[in-house]
Amino acid sequence: MEKWRRSERVVIITKYLLEKPNTLFSLNFFAELFQSAKSSISEDISIIRDVFREFTLGKVETLAGAGGGVIYSPLVGPREKDEFLQEIAEKLSDPSRILPGGYLYMTDIIFDARLAQKVGEIFAQHFIELEPEFVVTIETKGIPLALMTAKALNLPLVIIRDGSRVTEGSAVSLNYVTGSSRNIRTMSLARRALPTESRVVIIDDFMKAGGTAKGMVELLAEFKAEVLGIGVLVDTELPEQKLVPNYYSLLKLSKVDEIERKIMLHPHC
Known about the structure:
The protein has 269 residues and is of the alpha/beta class. The chain folds into 2 domains: 6-73, Winged helix-like DNA-binding domain superfamily/Winged helix DNA-binding domain (Arc Repressor Mutant, subunit A), CATH 1.10.10.10; 78-267, Rossmann fold (3-Layer(aba) Sandwich). It contains 8 helices and 12 strands. The chain has helices spanning 6-19, 27-34, 38-54, 78-92, 107-110, 113-127, 143-153, 211-221; strands at 59-63, 69-73, 98-99, 103-104, 134-138, 157-160, 171-177, 184-190, 199-207, 226-236, 248-257, 262-267. The strands form 4 sheets. Strands 6-5-9-10-11-12 form a 6-stranded mixed beta sheet, sandwiched between helices. A two-stranded antiparallel sheet has the order 1-2. α8 (211-221) links the parallel β9 and β10 (226-236). α1 (6-19) crosses α3, α2 (27-34) crosses α3 (38-54) and α6 crosses α7 (143-153). The longest helix is centred in the N-terminal third of the chain and has 17 residues, at 38-54.
């Protein structure tokens, strides 16, 4: 007689999958955990897979063979994605967010755990097939989005410092020119933070000309890292030609008018 009821096993298996996305769990793991037959575990997983598919809660995939098992990947459906990005666009289009100099206040959106998690899932869904090994960002505002992306991909997060920190030991530093203000700044990355020849994706909150992103790519080249892609929450319509050729942006900022107090911002098509 099995110790656990099916309803209990389904709940616990679901919790494991959600807590560790993109992690392969063997059927033996759950069979031993519940002291149940693998056939029963397979039926439990089939129930979870069907429910997740029906309600677009994510992708639950079973892999056959000795090294097989079950793996969960976050999935944001097209309609859910469109509605979510429209929600953020409307929040960011509030004229009260206009700051002196034509800047846009975004901090509360970026540091909202619910919104950051969904953004991370969208980025993860876009980049997962590239099989990255690390998620990289630069402090400070890019951290929540990158952290949630790393969580969804089940990967380590590497943070490039805006400047240097003696507490992190030996580091590689790079002077770069910001694409918008043309200021010279310094970014650094601890040598032990990233193994050489790693496959990485870069996540950041905002891109205007792309100077910071270009600097990160150049710094990562010092580690012989392969940059598979760049994801940003918001990019600007101008300048049209960015300093990095390929990137994935969720929202496009067309105009911030300080005089008329208008913001033109919309999801990417």
